[in-house]
Design goal:
108 residues, alpha+beta, 4 helices, 4 strands, 31% helix, globular
C-alpha cells in the first residue's frame, strides 16, 4: 500500500502515522506513509490500519460492505504487506504504527 502501487507520484499524499499535534507526532520521514488520496482518507478515518509488521488491515465493517469497484479494490489490500524502502531510516516507524494500529482496533 505504500505508494498505493501508483507510479504517478503526483497522485500521492504524505500521510502522517501519528499526527503532528499528538504526543509522538513529528514531521519526519519515519512518521509517514506515501498514500493516494483514497487510502490516505481511509487511513485518517481508521477505516484502514497498518500494523507494526507492515501489514494492511481493513475495517471489518468495510470488509462486509458491498459498494462497487472502488471499495472492492480497497478491500483487496486486506492482510497484504506494504512496500517499504530498503533504507531502514526511511521505513515507517514500527512503534508509531503500533500506536496508531491500537487506535484503529478500538475504532474498528
Amino acid at each position: 500500500m505504500r505508494r498505493c502501487r501508483l507510479k504517478e507520484t503526483r497522485l500521492l499524499d504524505a500521510a502522517h502515522i501519528v499526527g503532528d499535534l499528538e504526543e509522538h507526532g513529528e514531521a519526519i520521514v519515519s512518521n509517514g506513509l506515501s498514500l493516494c488520496s483514497i487510502h490516505h482518507r481511509a487511513f485518517d478515518h481508521d477505516l484502514v490500519g497498518i500494523d507494526a509488521d507492515y501489514t494492511v488491515r481493513i475495517s471489518p465493517r468495510l470488509l462486509k460492505e458491498k459498494d462497487g469497484p472502488m471499495l472492492e479494490l480497497l478491500k483487496g489490500f486486506h492482510a497484504q504487506p506494504i512496500s517499504v524502502p530498503r533504507a531502514i531510516t526511511f521505513r515507517p516507524d514500527r512503534e508509531r504504527l503500533a500506536e496508531r494500529y491500537e487506535r484503529f482496533l478500538t475504532r474498528a
